[in-house]
RNA sequence: GCAGGGGUUGCCAAGCUUGGUCAACGGCGCUGGGUUUAGGUCCCAGUCCUCAGUGGUUCGCAGGUUCAAAUCCUGCCCCCUGCACCA
C-alpha cells in the first residue's frame, strides 16, 4: 500500500473517484421537505465544441459551492444541460452538408466528457438539451399557455433585421445598431412577427429588482433597460384643425416655457401638415436624409441638430399661445409619442435648436426662490420655482408640486393625461431560422392564425432536411412535409408557421425544468418547483453578458408562469454571481493600442514596427491566447486546475492565466498530499504540539466555514489548502504530534479540502480508513473554540514573535559586535511590569478612566514609591495605557490571546527556556539565555525596554 | 451626458459596511540560506526608509472630522463597464 499512496497521482485517483461517484449515484437529489435545500446553478453552455476556461471557471465555482453545501447537510440540486438551439450549429451544418441535430449532439458529447473529467458533481439524471423535442415540447406548451393568457401577440411592426443572420432580432439583442451575435448592421423592416408582452410586467420587473441579491451593475443595467419615466401626455391642438399633437414630457412644470413643438420626421402628421405647401420640399429632404441613414449613423451625426419648420402652429393648451411646429432629426419616433414639446429655457437640446433657428427662449423656472431666473447662456435643466407663468396659480410652485399642479390643470381641462413611459419593449421572439423551437401555430385561409392543440405537441423539427452552404432563408419554409397540414379548427388545408423561437426563450425557464426534469406530463410539477425554487435559485453563476437579456427574460417568465399557476415563486434567482473573465498574456503594441495574435510574439508590430510588449487580454480564439483545459487536466489533474481557478481570484474579479502559477498550485497539491500521507502514517505516541495543532484546526475550521458560507472561495481555499499545510509543517518542526492528534487533525482537514479538490480529498479520506465517501458525508459545521485555545495559540505566536524580533535585530547587533555572535540573551519583563499590565487590562475592561484616575492609581503602587524605579514605572505605564507617538497603548492593541496570556500570568521565562533548543536552532545560534530583567546581566541595556510579551533581546 | 464599479506597498490582490491589534493577509516575482549527485522539487528567511528593535513616510490627489483614517465626509484627477439627443 505504501508505494501506491506515496506519490500524488491525479490521473489515477481522479478517474477512480469519478467512477465511484457515478456508481454510487451520490449526486442525485430529490425533493425532501425535511431538509433545507440549496439550488446551485450555472448558466448552461451553448455546446459549441470543447469546454473552455470560462466554463471551467464558472463550473468550478458552482461545484465547490454545491459540494460545500452537501457537506453542510443541505439537500443540493445541482444540474447541468445544454442551450443547444441556435445558429452556430445551423451554420456549421451548412458548411459540412449535415444536419444541426448531428452537429449539436457531437458537441454535447464532447462537452459532457470534459465536464466529467473535471469531476463536477451534477445530477446527471436531470441533464437536458433544449433542442430535444422532450424539452421544446414544453416551450410550445408554455407558448400556448401564454397565448391563452393574452401574452402572445402577432403583429406587423418595424423590426430589427439582420441580413447576415437572416432573421429578426429582439431589441435587447441589438447593440449600437449591430447584431449582438455577428456584429453586422441591423436595419428596420416591417414584418409580421410574434411578440411576448413583457411590458405587462414592466413595473414588477423594475420594482422587485430592489429585493434580489444581484450585483449592483446588473441591477443598474436592468433598471436602465426598463427605463421607466413618469410624466404626462399633453395635447397641443393644431391651429385651425381639429387634430392635436400629443407630446410626452417628464417636465410638465416647464409648460409655460414652450416656444415650439418638434415632431419626429417619421411622425404621420408631418406628411399631412406639409403636403402641398411651400414647406413640403425642405421637409422631404430632411425626412429622406433620416430614412437613408441607419439609426447608428443618425445618432452619430446628431451633434448636428437639424429641423425644418412645417408651416403650421399648435397652441399651448394652458395658455392658448400659438407656437410653431418643426420636424427635427433628433426626435425618436419610437419613444413616447414621437413628438416633443420644446422648452429651450430648460432643456439644453431645445436651447441649441432655438438658437440655431432663432426661436424665442423663455425662462419659466428660477433657481432661487422669489428671484428672477439668471441669464447664463445655457438652459437651466434642474428643478426650480415657477415664474412667468401665463396663468394664475402657478408661480412660486416648486418641483413635484409644480409638476402635479400642471398635470391637474391639464387633466381637468381634458388636455392631458398623467402617464408612465417605458423604454422596455415587448419581446420579439420569432426568428426566421430552422434550428429553434417551432412556433405552434397554423395559418388557415378561413380561420386565420390558429394555435396547435396541446395534444398535438410537440410540433417537431424535421430531421430529413439537407443543409447546404449556398442555401438562404429558412429550410423549414420549403419543407412541404412540415409546412402542409390541416387546420385544427375547420380541418381544411392549412400551413404551419415556419418561424421558430428566439433561443433565449429556451433558457427563460430551464431552471424550473431542472427542478423536475424527467416529467413527461407537464413542464414541471408545482411541488418540485416550489421546493427547489423557494426564494429562487440560491446561487446562480454566469457571465455579465446576460445582465439584460437572459436575466430579464427569465425574471419575466417566472412571473408569467406564476400567474399561469405553475409555480409560486416570483423571482428565479436570489443570489447572482457574475464570474470574471479569464485573461491570458497577449502581445500588445502600446503605440497602436492593439492586442495581437500570439503568433506575433517576438516580432515587431505589423502596423508601426515598434517592439511588442505583453498585456493581459480575454482568452479568445482570434488572439490565439487560449489555454486548453483538457491539456491542463492531463498535465496537472483536475484538482490542480480547480485549485488554480479558485485561488487565482475571487469569483467576481478578473483573473490572469499564468503557467507559473498553475505549476505552483500543482506543487501545493503535492505538498498537501505529502503532508496528508505523513499524517496518516504518523504512529507517534507522544506529541508536544497536539494541543496547538488541534486548536489551530478549530480556528481554521470556523474561519473557513464563515468564508465558504459567503462564497468566499479564495479565502476559504487559502485556509484549507495553504494555511493548514503550513500549520501541519510548523507542528512537525516544533516537535511533532501524536497519532491521536494527527488523526483528529486529518478528520477536520480532509473534508475542508473536499469542495475545491474533491478527488484528492476522497482518496485521502479512504486511506484514512473512512468507509463512507465524503460525497455522502455531512460534517459538523458547529465546531467552536475550546476555552484554552487562545492561550495555546497565543503562546506559540509569542514564540514566533520573539524569534522574529530576534532576527530583525540580529544584523544590527552584528555591526556593533566584534567577531561572530555566539549567544542571544532574552530578558523578560520585571515582575512589577507583569503585575501592572495585568491590573491595567482589568481596569480597562471595567471601564476605568485612565486620563482622570491614572496617576492617582499609580501613586498607590509600591514600585512607584521607590525613587530608583519611579521614572521607569511612569514610562511603562504610559506605554501600556496610552501609548506614545502614533502607537496606542498595549491595553488597546492586545487581542484576546495576549490579554489571556498576561492575565493568566504566563511564565515567559519558563516557556522560552523550555523551547531554548528550538530557538537556538531557528536562530542558528549556539547559546540562548533567558532570565527576568534584573536577575542577570543587563546586556545592551535591554532590561529597561522589556515589556510583558515583548522581552528585551540582545546579542553577544 | 447619465448610471454602476474601481484606483492599496514591484505585479496580482485582501482590507474598507461595524474608524484603532494596519507597514497593512495571501500569492507571484525577486534576494539569501538549507536539503538534493546536479537541475527541478521541497523547507527556512528577507523584500518602503531608517535603526541594537517600541522611529519615519505610505494605501489616486487636495482638504476636513477625530485623541486616532487605507477605512468616515467634501472637492478634484484618472481607469473600467453599461446606456445614451428618451423628451
What does this protein structure show overall?
With 956 residues, the chain is an alpha+beta fold. Helices cover 41% and strands 16% of the residues. It is built from 34 helices and 34 strands. A hairpin with a 6-residue loop joins strand 23 and strand 24. Helix 22 (690-709) packs across helix 26, helix 24 packs antiparallel against helix 25 and helix 27 runs parallel beside helix 30. The chain starts with a helix and ends with a strand. The structure holds one RNA strand of 87 nucleotides.
Quick overview of this protein structure:
The protein has 956 residues and is α+β, with helices and mostly antiparallel strands.
List key phrases describing it.
4-stranded antiparallel sheet; alpha+beta; 956 residues; single chain; 34 helices; disordered N terminus; 4-stranded parallel sheet; RNA-binding
Per DSSP, the total helix count is: 34
Strand order of the largest sheet: 2-1-26-27
Would you report the number of β strands? Answer: 34
Helix % is 40-55%
Report the span from N to C terminus: 52 Å
Mean pLDDT: 88
Low-confidence stretches: 1-5
Strand percentage: 15-25%
Question: Pairing-aware structural class of the strands and helices?
Answer: alpha+beta
Rg value? 38 Å
Molecular shape: globular
Largest sheet: 4 strands, parallel
Amino acid at each position: 500500500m505504501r508505494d501506491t499512496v506515496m506519490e500524488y497521482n491525479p490521473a489515477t485517483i481522479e478517474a477512480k473517484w469519478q467512477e465511484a461517484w457515478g456508481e454510487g449515484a451520490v449526486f442525485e437529489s430529490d425533493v425532501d421537505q425535511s431538509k433545507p435545500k440549496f439550488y446551485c446553478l450555472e448558466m448552461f453552455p451553448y455546446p459549441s465544441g470543447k469546454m473552455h476556461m470560462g466554463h471551467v471557471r464558472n463550473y468550478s465555482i458552482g461545484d465547490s459551492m454545491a459540494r460545500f453545501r452537501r457537506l453542510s447537510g443541505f439537500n443540493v440540486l445541482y444540474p447541468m444541460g445544454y442551450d443547444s438551439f441556435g445558429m452556430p450549429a445551423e451554420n456549421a451544418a451548412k458548411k459540412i452538408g449535415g444536419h444541426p441535430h448531428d452537429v449539436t449532439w457531437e458537441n454535447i458529447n464532447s462537452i459532457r466528457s470534459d465536464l466529467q473529467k473535471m469531476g463536477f458533481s451534477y445530477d446527471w439524471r436531470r441533464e437536458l438539451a433544449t433542442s430535444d423535442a422532450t424539452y421544446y415540447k414544453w416551450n410550445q406548451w408554455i407558448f400556448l399557455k401564454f397565448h391563452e393568457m393574452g401574452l402572445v401577440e402577432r403583429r406587423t411592426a418595424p423590426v430589427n433585421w439582420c441580413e447576415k443572420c437572416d432573421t429578426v432580432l429582439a431589441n435587447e439583442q441589438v447593440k449600437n445598431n449591430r447584431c449582438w451575435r455577428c456584429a453586422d448592421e441591423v436595419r428596420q423592416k416591417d414584418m409580421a412577427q410574434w411578440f411576448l408582452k413583457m411590458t405587462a410586467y414592466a413595473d414588477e420587473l423594475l420594482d422587485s429588482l430592489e429585493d434580489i441579491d444581484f450585483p449592483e451593475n446588473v441591477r443598474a443595467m436592468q433598471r436602465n433597460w426598463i427605463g421607466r419615466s413618469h410624466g404626462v401626455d399633453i395635447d397641443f391642438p393644431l391651429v385651425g384643425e381639429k387634430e392635436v399633437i400629443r407630446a410626452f414630457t417628464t417636465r410638465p412644470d416647464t409648460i409655460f416655457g414652450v416656444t415650439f413643438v418638434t415632431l419626429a420626421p417619421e411622425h404621420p402628421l408631418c406628411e399631412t401638415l406639409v403636403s402641398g405647401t411651400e414647406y413640403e420640399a425642405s421637409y422631404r429632404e430632411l425626412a429622406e436624409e433620416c430614412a437613408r441613414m441607419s439609426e447608428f449613423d443618425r445618432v452619430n451625426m446628431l451633434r448636428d441638430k437639424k429641423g425644418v419648420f412645417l408651416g403650421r402652429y399648435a397652441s399651448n393648451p394652458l395658455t392658448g399661445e400659438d407656437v410653431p411646429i418643426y420636424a427635427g432629426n433628433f426626435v425618436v419616433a419610437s419613444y413616447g409619442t414621437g413628438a416633443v414639446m420644446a422648452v429651450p429655457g430648460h432643456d439644453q437640446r431645445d436651447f441649441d435648436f432655438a438658437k440655431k433657428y432663432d426661436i424665442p427662449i423663455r425662462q419659466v423656472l428660477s433657481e432661487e426662490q422669489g428671484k428672477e431666473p439668471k441669464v447664463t447662456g445655457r438652459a437651466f435643466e434642474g428643478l426650480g420655482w415657477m415664474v412667468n407663468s401665463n396663468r394664475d396659480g402657478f408661480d412660486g410652485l416648486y418641483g413635484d408640486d409644480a409638476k402635479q399642479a400642471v398635470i391637474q390643470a391639464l387633466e381637468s381641462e381634458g388636455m392631458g393625461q398623467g402617464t408612465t413611459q417605458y423604454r422596455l419593449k415587448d419581446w420579439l421572439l420569432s426568428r426566421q431560422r430552422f434550428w429553434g423551437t417551432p412556433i405552434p401555430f397554423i395559418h388557415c385561409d378561413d380561420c386565420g392564425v390558429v394555435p396547435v392543440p396541446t395534444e398535438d405537441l410537440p410540433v417537431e423539427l424535421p430531421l430529413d432536411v439537407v443543409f447546404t452552404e449556398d442555401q438562404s432563408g429558412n429550410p423549414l419554409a420549403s419543407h412541404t412535409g412540415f409546412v402542409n397540414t390541416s387546420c385544427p379548427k375547420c380541418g381544411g388545408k392549412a400551413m404551419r408557421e415556419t418561424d421558430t423561437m428566439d433561443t433565449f426563450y429556451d433558457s427563460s425557464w430551464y431552471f424550473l425544468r431542472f427542478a423536475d426534469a424527467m416529467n413527461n406530463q407537464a413542464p414541471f410539477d408545482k411541488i418540485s418547483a416550489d421546493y427547489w425554487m423557494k426564494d429562487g435559485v440560491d446561487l446562480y453563476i454566469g457571465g455579465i453578458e446576460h445582465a439584460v437579456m437572459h436575466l430579464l427574460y427569465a425574471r419575466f417568465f417566472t412571473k408569467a408562469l406564476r400567474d399561469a399557476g405553475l409555480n409560486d415563486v416570483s423571482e428565479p434567482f436570489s443570489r447572482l454571481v457574475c464570474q470574471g473573465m479569464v485573461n491570458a498574456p497577449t502581445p500588445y503594441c502600446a503605440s497602436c493600442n492593439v492586442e495581437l495574435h500570439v503568433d506575433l510574439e517576438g516580432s515587431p508590430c505589423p502596423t508601426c514596427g515598434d517592439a511588442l510588449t505583453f498585456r493581459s487580454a480575454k482568452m479568445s480564439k482570434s488572439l490565439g491566447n487560449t489555454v486548453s483545459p483538457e491539456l491542463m487536466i492531463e498535465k496537472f489533474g483536475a484538482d490542480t486546475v480547480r485549485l488554480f481557478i479558485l485561488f487565482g481570484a475571487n469569483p467576481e474579479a478578473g483573473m490572469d492565466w499564468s503557467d507559473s502559477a498553475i505549476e505552483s498550485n500543482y506543487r501545493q497539491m503535492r505538498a498537501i498530499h505529502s503532508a496528508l500521507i505523513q499524517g496518516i502514517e504518523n504512529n507517534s505516541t507522544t506529541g508536544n504540539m497536539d494541543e496547538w495543532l488541534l486548536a489551530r484546526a478549530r480556528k481554521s475550521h470556523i474561519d473557513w466555514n464563515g468564508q465558504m458560507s459567503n462564497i468566499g472561495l479564495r479565502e476559504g481555499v487559502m485556509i484549507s489548502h495553504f494555511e493548514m499545510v503550513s500549520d501541519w509543517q510548523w507542528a512537525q518542526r516544533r516537535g511533532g504530534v501524536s497519532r491521536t492528534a494527527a488523526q483528529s487533525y486529518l478528520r477536520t482537514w480532509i473534508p475542508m479540502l473536499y469542495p475545491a479538490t474533491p478527488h484528492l480529498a476522497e482518496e485521502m479520506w479512504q486511506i484514512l480508513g473512512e468507509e463512507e465517501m465524503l460525497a455522502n458525508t455531512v460534517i459538523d459545521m458547529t465546531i467552536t473554540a475550546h476555552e484554552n485555545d487562545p492561550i495555546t495559540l497565543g503562546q506559540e505566536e509569542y514564540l514566533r514573535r520573539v524569534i522574529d524580533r530576534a532576527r530583525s535585530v540580529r544584523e544590527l547587533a552584528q555591526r556593533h559586535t566584534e567577531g561572530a555572535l555566539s549567544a542571544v540573551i532574552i530578558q523578560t519583563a520585571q515582575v512589577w511590569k507583569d503585575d501592572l499590565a495585568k491590573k491595567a487590562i482589568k481596569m480597562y475592561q471595567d471601564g476605568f478612566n485612565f486620563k482622570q484616575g491614572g496617576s492617582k492609581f499609580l501613586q498607590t503602587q509600591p514600585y512607584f514609591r521607590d525613587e530608583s524605579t519611579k521614572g521607569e514605572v511612569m514610562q511603562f505605564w504610559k506605554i501600556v495605557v496610552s501609548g506614545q507617538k502614533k502607537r496606542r497603548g498595549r491595553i488597546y492593541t492586545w487581542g484576546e490571546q495576549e490579554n489571556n496570556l498576561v492575565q493568566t500570568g504566563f511564565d515567559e521565562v519558563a516557556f522560552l527556556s523550555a523551547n531554548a533548543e528550538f530557538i537556538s536552532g531557528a536562530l542558528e545560534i549556539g547559546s540562548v539565555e533567558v532570565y527576568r530583567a534584573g536577575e542577570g546581566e543587563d546586556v545592551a541595556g535591554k532590561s529597561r525596554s522589556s515589556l510583558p510579551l515583548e522581552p528585551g533581546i540582545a546579542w553577544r
